[in-house]
Write a structure and sequence with these properties.
Elements lengths: L11 H12 L5 H4 L1 H6 L3 H12 L3 E3 L5 E6 L4 E6 L14 H11 L7 H5 L1
Helix pairs in contact: 4-5
């Protein structure tokens, strides 16, 4: 995702792109997300799936794009312009916020959420 301005705040679209980048960095990840979308997952199951996709520590970057770093411990994802942001800025999501973002981005419902079944 090309970006401009080193100090500009990330847009919601950029944060979602970074989230997808972090949670699809392993081979076969796109296929692994199809079952949770179809069947739903509890917060605990979803946290484990995200932890698996994020791994111990990883990231990617390139010229004129966002630098994305991620860590399974704490379900943390960092994104920003330029060099490594893990040590320079707070994550764009962590813990329960990462689980909520996964539900929004991938459309994964919680089968135990009675309110969701009413809709």
């Amino acid at each position: 995702m090309p970006v401009t301005g080193d100090d500009a705040a990330l847009t919601e679209a950029e944060k979602r792109w970074a989230f997808r980048r972090a949670t699809n960095s392993l081979s076969g990840s796109e296929r692994r997300w199809t079952e949770p979308v179809a069947r739903g997952q509890s917060d605990e199951q979803l946290a484990e799936a995200i932890r698996h996709e994020l791994g111990i520590l990883g990231g990617s970057s390139g010229p004129n794009g966002l630098a994305v770093e991620h860590a399974g411990d704490g379900l943390k994802i960092w994104a920003g312009r330029g060099a490594s942001h893990r040590h320079a800025s707070p994550p764009i999501c962590a813990g329960a916020a990462t689980i909520r973002l996964a539900r929004q981005v991938y459309g994964i419902q919680d089968p135990g959420d009675r309110q969701m079944r009413l809709l």
